[in-house]
């Protein structure tokens, strides 16, 4: 029998310090994260929710005009939690800037921040968003202001890329191309020629053709300024990675009862297991439970009888709707059963589909109650 995911026990446990919601796009991760945060705050936790979703649904649902790169306390009419709730949205560039300031002296930070190559990679380098998410999580944990941090991750498989981000950035900055770029200043201006040897001219011409001569110079200057700071970056990322693997962290995989979403959920579960990350369970959003104990076939037969007699067309329509609902619910049960068979022991909770989009605290509270119901 599949165990029930008890989210109230999870958020009430003082040893739970971080909850990470991950899953494919469009399955309700942001709503799930916000609903858990509201419920945790109302049950006495000092909670902050971090969204990496650029859409502004979280701010709107919490009654805030906007979210920034620093936590903002939620203070709206009708919300008087026993604990406290703050919310924020990751600003990748500002987080990178803050990180540079924290790891460098004023002059070195100025060299990095004004470098055109830095301005490019701080907003578009592969893996930067995930690395900055790790950095911001680490900052929030180090602050000690909150006893529960809830993270809403990017959509699709990139939701787990922040697990790889420190190693990817480390590999990139320790790679041969970066060493070539850093070479000139480290060897009195001749390092690059010495490393490449007789092929220097061909190398320089090829790289300049690809990235442009000025960008090549900017990149070399950036690496020289950045190199002394990278050790601190790597240390912070390592500490955050260990935080994610600790007993105080819980991963919630969020899915919809659809084949693609549950296939992605299986990937997340397997990836988390491979990384020894603590999985709390699966949240299946937008399910369609049957509201009456009437088999679909009987409902259809009754609807056909009413239609032939011409009596009560409204009742016939309701019976047909019920039969459709039974069919949808059966399909969803089979899909979830396939997942639970492949991942035995993973706790599951189901959240019924809402009649309309969640856009306020009342809706988030309702989602929170459904999450706790198992």
UniProtKB/TrEMBL annotation:
Pfam families: ArsA_ATPase. Residues 16-287 form the ArsA/GET3 Anion-transporting ATPase-like domain. One of its GO terms (molecular function) is ATP binding. It comes from the Bacteria. Coiled coil: none annotated. This is ATPase. It comes from Kibdelosporangium phytohabitans. The lineage of its organism: Bacteria, Bacillati, Actinomycetota, Actinomycetes, Pseudonocardiales.
